[in-house]
Amino acid sequence: MTTRYVLTSACIQNGTMTLTLSLRRHLQGRERARFVDEDGEVYEVEVDWKAGVVRGLGPYYAKRRLAVNEAVLLHFRGEEVELQAAPRSAPRGEPKEARPAPSLPPEEPKRRVRVTPYPKEVLFPHEPKRLEPPGVSEDLGRLGFVLEGGPPWVYKASLGRRQVVLALLRLGEGEPEDLKPFRRQGAYTAYLAPESQKASLPEGVGFVSPEALSRLLRLKGRFPLSSLDLEDLLRQGRVDLEAVEALEDRLVAEFSERGAFASLLLLLAKKPMGEVFLLADLEAEALEEGLIPEVVRQGVETLAQPPFLLLKRLSPGEFLLRQGVEEALEDLMAFAQGLKARLSRVRSA
After folding, report:
1. Which one, of 56, 63, 18, lies nearest residue 35 by Cα?
2. Phi-psi region of 326 (alpha: psi -120 to 50; beta: other; left: phi over 0)
3. For residues 275 and 266, what is the distance between their CA atoms, to the nearest angstrom?
4. Which of the two residues, 126 and 237, has the higher pLDDT score?
5. What is the mean pLDDT of residues 197-219?
6. Residue 85, φ and ψ in degrees, nearest 5
7. Can you give the pLDDT at residue 110?
8. 319 DSSP β-pair partners
9. Long-range contacts from 330-339, C-beta under 8 angstroms, 24+ separation
10. How far apart are alpha carbons 44 and 185 in whole angstroms?
């Protein structure tokens, strides 16, 4: 089996490759893997299921001098994955090999004049310089945000009838005034900078650090997190390590050992009522949320039994979502309150 993978700026910068569906199927259950290039050189890579990437391919990208939007062919051979850089297309206008012309009498040598072209910045002073998106785009994508463009770099997370909009500026890309139009439109605005540069930011602007987003993603592997949790931090004006650690303390107190079950419910909440799905497909989706297949299987069995009755088994490995998750939780809450009232009457009798 062979698939084509197109490299992004995050891939080149971090030496990673996103775990696509084909890679997930081939590497399922493994934490290390062997990638082999065209020359037989072996790369022992790490399979990071929580972050959804394969790490350790930076030397290969550098060896082949690969760039953004270039492709790598992945050949799945047994336990190994063979890497093959896709052929680069010839630049437009590149001359084809010419046939030898008939020999002519030699001409007198002409004087050559070297012309130094003006820099592009001089000829086109108002043309904006193209910048690469921030490296945190991949992390924000796993939290539900999609990059719209920039700078300022605008990310949007759709939440049904509403959406969360975040506009980011890296230090040196602009001034705080550049973020004002987005703030007037209801977007969250912030500077993107490392934790070490937090003190040097202008006053009165939001702050987001790459370290905090990475910590938030690791936390997502243990607790049910979504773009709404990031919005809560943005509302406070900062997404730094201190804020994420405070969020982690709250989640530990709220969920404790119920975190995995809550993550499964949030995953099912994305499906419309009446949908029929396969357990294998749900397990594959749950891997992206950091849930192992065993937890998913146990949770599905629980949700198909009283008092939940959220799912109905149609055949081995096939289930029907009988009602929405929110409605099912409301029914369960009413059941619990009624049972609690009954217990009070029994005890007082």
Report:
1. 56
2. alpha
3. 15
4. 237
5. 85
6. -65, 125
7. 52
8. 277, 313
9. 332/307, 332/308, 335/307
10. 47
pTM to 2 decimals? 0.43
Instruction: Output the CA torsion sign for 210, 215, 218, 219.
Output: negative
Work out the number of other CB atoms within 10 angstroms of the CB of residue 81. 22
Whether the Cβ atoms of residue 245 and residue 276 lie closer than 8 Å to each other: no
| Bridge partners, residue 168, by sequence | 153, 190
H or E, element range at 147: strand 146-149
pLDDT digits (tens, 9 = 90+) for 212-264: 999 988 888 777 777 888 898 999 888 999 999 998 888 776 665 567 788 88
Tokens of 212: 């905090």
Cβ-contact 71, 3 below 8 angstroms: no
How crowded is residue 127: how many other Cβ atoms within 10 Å of its Cβ? 9
pLDDT grade for 23, boundaries at 50, 70 and 90: confident
- Beta strands 53-55 and 16-18 are antiparallel
Q: Which two tokens stand for residue 32?
A: 């290390």
The mean pLDDT of the chain is 82
Q: Which residue has the tokens 């050559």?
A: 112
Dist. CA 226–CA 235, nearest whole Å: 15
pLDDT in the model for residue 267: 87
Alpha-carbon gap, residue 335 to 110, rounded angstroms = 97
β-pair type (188-192, 162-170):
parallel
